[in-house]
Amino acid sequence: MRLEFTLLWFENQIAEVRPAIQGLKAHLEEAGFELCVLEEADDTNIDAHARNQESFHDIDLIVVDLDLGEAAASGDEIAQQIRRRFKFTDIVFYSGVAPSELRGRIQQRNVDGVYCMARSELRANLIELVDDLIRRMSRLEAMRGLAVATAGKADLRMRAILKALHEGADEAGKAELVAFIDKEVKDGDDRLQRKYEGAATLAEKVDSLACTSMVLLKATKKFVGQRQELRTQRTVLGRYQVEVMDIRNSLGHATETRTSDGWVIRAHGGGNITRDDFPTFRQSFSRHLSNLDALCEILGVQVTGDAEKG
């Protein structure tokens, strides 16, 4: 599960469907997702998108207009190519003509898994369809995985930020940062601490398993807070433990039970977590990753080992 929802959209007059895109974008933001639209005016790049999908499965939904201009393939032709190359990814096929005519064209080409929509109803129908897709993703296992992935991505960024802060500090600042992390690690697991003692450089120390997520957070908050120009980002970091780490831990120990009223998620120690909580969780995850990305950008940090935010 990711924090992005990606559409591949075939439309040669994309300005005409901007209201639908903006409406869907706003709706997805409320659900805790960031909308990404890959725009194509014709079928030129279908093979490239298909190869990318086979490798990364980034595209969640494909939207195709019927009429892409006289020189381009028609939307039903493109839908046929898509189904051949993208397997089971859902397709939305739309136009100003009646949906019954669109279904006839799709049927003639023997293409399955296509939703036919009138252009005038595109915005409302896309929101309804995407809502259904989100509900399928809103199970405990998916949210638990997203929380763990978010914390892992955040750890990568904090390690990179601490290395950058250390590199840019004077000798006294470098020593203070190393001493702070040394002290925090010494309060942790003895077995991991023994491995940590073999680390000679700051980079080796923060990459050590003994330098836990909590140690990384404490060090990042403390030393980011010493920089006046980073105070805004430090304020957001102040909510990271509650809005990411505590949620990750709660989801990690929660259980999901099938009941007559649907799935019920019970937190360890009492209380329920509902699907209505999931948009807030996703919004928090996205906000904190964006904040860490902003810190990395300000410090000129390149994060390695992580190709996406969500």
UniProtKB/TrEMBL annotation:
SUPFAM superfamilies: CheY-like. It comes from the Bacteria. Keywords: DNA-binding, Hydrolase. InterPro entries: CheY-like_superfamily (IPR011006). GO terms for molecular function: DNA binding; hydrolase activity. CDD domains: REC (cd00156). The keyword Nucleotidyltransferase does not apply. This is DNA-binding NarL/FixJ family response regulator. It comes from Methylobacterium fujisawaense.
